[in-house]
Amino acid sequence: MSFGEKLASIMQRPGQDPVAKDDVPFWLKYAGRGLGTVGSLLAIFLGAFKCIGIIFGYISCPISGMWQMVAGFLVMTVEAPCCCMFVDFVQNLSDWVEKKPYWSRAAVYCLLAIPPVLLCPDLNIIFGSGLIFTTGVIYGFMSLGKKGSRPDPAVMTPTDVSFPPPSAPPADQHTTLMEDPDVWRPT
Questions:
Q1: Domain for residue 183, yes or no?
Q2: Residue 72 and residue 67: Cα distance in Å, rounded?
């Protein structure tokens, strides 16, 4: 067993099918899951830091810090349910989200990350929510699917051209398009 296979077996979720059912590259799956896990931990920490700042007289933005902590917890329950084993419903929620398409996860992550930044554009909030938003962007890329091969666009190019070819250029080369509208006319 190679190192890559050992790493893949460690990163598998419990009960996951070892054969991939979609055409998403493995590194993109690990990037989404890894950034979601690390980003949610940092978002929770930075949100708590923003909420604890009220003790020291920093009364700006405790609501956005709480929102960021809740968003970080939700992302962590989906991406790394092993970190939240103390909550009963986490594994069920994670399995339910795994059955959904990638675009839905991307939309939820991006929508969760926007309100804290709108409420308080502070560096802690921007960084923590930015990591959650970036996780959503990665899942958005995953929803696009596998990149096509080079010959695919040539096959998809239509052979029937429905517009007439442009007319010959005027004999007088000093005539501009504005002066002679018969040079080229869109149909």
A1: no
A2: 9
Gap between the Cα atoms of 84 and 73, Å rounded: 9
Assess if residue 3 is contained within a domain. Answer: no
Whether 7 is in a domain gets the answer: no
122 in a structural domain: yes
Per-residue pLDDT of the chain (187 residues; tens, 9 = 90+): 666 666 566 556 555 555 455 677 788 888 888 999 999 999 999 999 888 878 877 777 888 889 999 999 999 988 887 877 787 788 888 888 888 888 999 999 999 999 999 988 888 899 999 999 999 999 998 888 776 666 666 666 665 555 555 565 555 565 555 555 555 555 5
Per the structure, the complete domain to which residue 119 belongs is given by 24-144
Measured CA to CA, the distance from residue 62 to residue 116 in angstroms comes to 10
d(CA 62, CA 51): 5
The pTM score is: 0.67
Domain count, the chain: 1
At residue 143, what is the residue type? Answer: S
